[in-house]
Amino acid sequence: MKYSFPKFTINLCAASFVIGLTTFLTSPVAFADPESETEVDSRSVHLFNMPTEQTVGAYQLLIRGDGSLVKEPGVLSFAGLIAVGIGELGQLEYRHTGAISLGNRSAPLPTAGMQLLVPIPERWKVPQIGVAFRLGVLHEDAIDEVEIAERVSDLYFVSSFRLPGAMSPVQLHGGVRVSSAEAIVKSQGMDDDPLKTRETLLLPSIGWSAQMNPDARIIGEAEWVPRFVAGGENQPVRIETGILGRLGVDWRMNSYFALNASIGYTLESPSTLARDGINLMNWDIRLGGEFFLPWRKPLCRNLSFICPKGE
Predict the structure, then answer these.
(1) How far apart, in whole angstroms, are the C-alpha atoms of residue 289 and residue 118?
(2) What CATH number has the domain bearing residue 256?
(3) What value does the mean pLDDT take over residues 260-273?
(4) What confidence tens digit (pLDDT) does each residue in 206-226 have?
(5) pLDDT tens per residue across span 5-35
(6) Measuring CA to CA, which residue among 233, 139, 229, 147 is closest to residue 186?
(7) How many domains in the chain?
(8) Rounded CA gap, 7 and 184, in Å?
């Protein structure tokens, strides 16, 4: 079975490539001396699922993953992020974006794209803003002899604000996500055309982090995400909204490694909260870690022919 990418996400991908290439070529550190590489606090790049406006930095590689054996006994649920810095203002990334799949499962869906930090002068005294373009990749599954393919593509805006004075260890995060969510359903052994559903959603996200000491912080986040709901027999999937929340801690072990632990929850559509109160659909406990590596020095050391002379 073959599916085509949504047209507007292809345009986003092309735009992100052009903007990213321009950012890389015009960044003041794009061709900096590898000896000038500095450590970047990778914990500022994301909370758990929610990104911040920061990027990993020039010549940096971030690999992150977490998993849970609690949500479904004996079944490992995994989510991850791979990000490569292209100058100080951009990064290429492959990440799992938040969504609620059929059966009320928190199902991170794969995406590939780019995140950019908008270069706002410090003298303007306004929070920095990050913009991310993510092209969704089909995630296929089968439930009760029904083949299901889900995909979410995003245009994401996010910003942060650090509280002043004695509350300066606390940082607030907010964002909005324009998501194109798509579901394709086909019964096994049937020759009928697949049932397709596509919706465009405007989804907010909020978060906070509190630095407890130089190596540990507490993190909380809540994201409004696409929620795929089964229709009736021979009916297409409905696409609504739900809430994914997470609260936990992370520890910086050294300059290259960090560990994190969190408890997450899944809530029904926000429109039902006022009427029915909080309805907890699912929860899990996740453990994860990340590896952070400057890559320019090893690259120039082993493949010197691609680096300018003297590096």
Answers:
(1) 28
(2) 2.40.160.40
(3) 75
(4) 999 999 988 899 999 999 999
(5) 444 444 444 444 444 444 444 444 333 343 4
(6) 147
(7) 1
(8) 16
Is 2 a member of any domain? no
- The token pair at 92 is 């290429």
One-letter amino acid at 168 equals S
Segments forming the whole domain that contains residue 142 = 7-306
Flag whether 1 is in a domain. Answer: no
In a domain, 218, yes or no: yes
**pTM for the predicted model, two decimal places:** 0.76
- Is residue 63 situated within a structural domain? yes
